[in-house]
Specification:
By secondary structure, the protein is mainly beta. It has two helices and 39 strands. The chain is flat, with a radius of gyration of 26 Å.
């Protein structure tokens, strides 16, 4: 009999189900990805043996440092066990963080069918660096992020490891635990790792790394996962920005569809504002506004505060007591960074036009309306929900760089692993004084055509209105193979599957915002949900 979890819409109560975990001995062996015993495991193409790229081999994937000639090759002289009959994969890169060339990634795609990573305990490998490889100021060789490529071309990282200096003289073993609750962990198409050199002040130089013995380790016992726990929640009206993407700096934003939202040259004040309805209670969470000159940016490019050459930003953070503070800052002529050295966003502007903080304002509450107003091309005022204000100004030559085209971005970001999965809810976004003003209160579905999603995980940007999207269904993970269904009664027939389109993962749960049109009873008076594993 399949395990079933039910909810009644009539009373908003759950009839929970419990299950006992079972463990059975197994004789499973490690899944060897590569031991690098022969050169065929890292083929160079085109060659006589490999005129085109062969299947299921390591290849460069993405990262700015790749453009500087990252190379992959087989090295028979380096083996983690010191075996003359084996070798390793050698990766050579030239890093230049100041030019944005601070990372590279590689991937090996696996078999035709997806790999179920939840069946394994750890992802393991051995690494070693050339002793004179470039290092970060802390003495490490950089951060190696190891994990997987999903069937949707995303990444799941099992570990982020700062490689110590000792790896320059001996092999360093990495054992990365696999989180079975991560979304798509059962739908993997490859093994992936990324080498990242960190902040803008890191030195320029060559880095040579060897990698060996990449494998997946199964558990010594098979543990039957617990039955998922399911719950139903009313959805708070507004724009939900859920930090559901895997990275701590992944932004969830709406941006203007067109780059026509400059304040420069307007004959009236221009105001940009967002109203926070609900904010995570964990201090340090970030909400923001970015104003970025340029045009033709890809919709998914949401980290323009870092990638763009010039950017004006509002950074809002909360405190433990429910208060908050907002910073108005800018950077100038500093692509792929947080600003010029000594003039980043968090350094007080010195009036030279190189960048920094222009103004800072506090508020007794983080909820409410935060705004930025330009009364002229150069003069700015920021206002907090409790009415406190602060002013700052740009140099005329700096302001001139923000004549249209300019995009406006509104969003949120966790900034720390402990804040991932949290949600900020906006009740209003407004831009006034421009040629195409925006005043969106998210009360009508869909929101205005003047705004569009630009998010690391588009499913984490959800609009809630009482009549259209009345509630969330949430269930614990892992829940591999389970389907979500709903029905008007508890009979064996009549159950209809609700597709996972739009579902997201946050706080070790799967969330699905339910649309009223998907319900059998459009009056919300009666209905049941179940998770079922066929």
């Amino acid at each position: 009999m399949s395990p079933v979890l039910l909810f009644s819409l009539r009373r908003w109560l759950a009839a929970g189900a419990t299950g006992l975990a079972m463990t059975l001995p197994v004789s499973a062996e490690d899944l060897i990805i590569n031991n690098f015993d022969t050169a065929d495991e890292v083929p160079q193409w085109p060659t006589e043996n490999f005129p085109s790229k062969p299947n299921n081999v390591w290849e460069l994937w993405w990262g700015q440092a790749i453009t500087d000639g990252v190379s992959l090759s087989f090295d028979a002289s380096m083996d983690a066990a010191g075996s003359a009959a084996s070798g390793s994969m050698k990766l050579v890169a030239d890093f230049d963080r100041t030019s944005g060339k601070g990372e590279y990634s590689v991937v090996r795609y696996l078999a035709d069918k997806p790999l179920d990573g939840s069946q394994y305990l750890t992802l393991e490998m051995d690494v070693r660096f050339k002793p004179d490889a470039v290092t970060r100021p802390d003495g490490t060789f950089g951060t190696l992020e190891v994990g997987f490529a999903t069937m949707t071309w995303g990444q799941i990282y099992a570990a982020r490891v700062a490689i110590p200096a000792s790896a320059g003289s001996e092999w360093y073993h990495i054992s990365a635990p696999i989180n079975k609750a991560v979304d798509q962990i059962d739908q993997l198409q490859g093994i992936h790792f990324k080498m990242w050199m960190g902040g803008e002040t890191d030195p320029v130089g060559n880095s040579t790394m060897w990698v060996d013995n990449i494998r997946l380790i199964p558990p010594t016992v098979v543990e039957e996962p617990p039955v998922p726990v399911m719950r139903l929640e009313p959805a708070l009206p507004g724009l939900h920005l859920v930090s559901s993407a895997p990275g701590i700096y992944d932004r969830q934003t709406l941006r203007t569809v067109t780059p026509e939202y400059s304040w420069v040259g307007r004959n009236q004040p221009v105001t940009y504002s967002f109203t926070v309805k609900e904010f995570p209670s964990m201090p340090g969470y970030n909400a923001f506004l970015y104003l970025t000159p340029g045009s033709g940016f890809a919709t998914g490019l949401n980290y323009v505060d870092y990638s763009a050459e010039n950017c004006v930003v509002l950074f809002l953070t909360n405190n433990a007591d429910g208060s908050g503070g907002m910073r108005l800052a800018y950077k100038d002529s500093a692509p792929n960074s947080n600003g010029q050295a000594g003039h980043d966003y968090w350094t007080t502007d010195d009036g030279t036009g190189k960048g920094g903080t222009l103004a800072y304002v506090n508020s007794s509450t983080v909820t409410g309306t935060w705004s930025l107003t330009f009364d002229s091309d150069t003069a700015a005022t920021i206002t907090s929900p409790d009415g406190q204000t602060a002013t700052g100004s740009l140099l005329p030559e700096t302001a001139a760089k923000y004549a249209n085209p300019v995009y406006a971005y509104f969003g949120a970001m966790p900034g720390d692993a402990a804040r991932q999965g949290r949600t900020a809810v906006y009740s209003r976004i407004r831009i006034s004084g421009t040629a195409n003003p925006i005043d969106e209160d998210f009360s009508v579905m869909p929101f205005t055509e003047l705004l569009e999603k630009s998010a690391s995980d588009a499913n984490g940007v959800q609009q809630v209105t009482p009549l259209d999207t009345p509630f969330w269904v949430k269930w614990s993970l892992p829940a591999v193979g389970y389907k979500l269904q709903q029905s008007l009664d508890l009979g064996a027939t009549g159950w209809q599957e609700i597709p996972m389109t739009g579902a997201l993962t946050a706080l070790s749960e799967r969330w699905r915002l339910i649309n009223a049109s998907e319900l059998s009873d459009l009056n919300f008076k009666k209905g049941f949900f179940q998770l079922i594993k066929p």
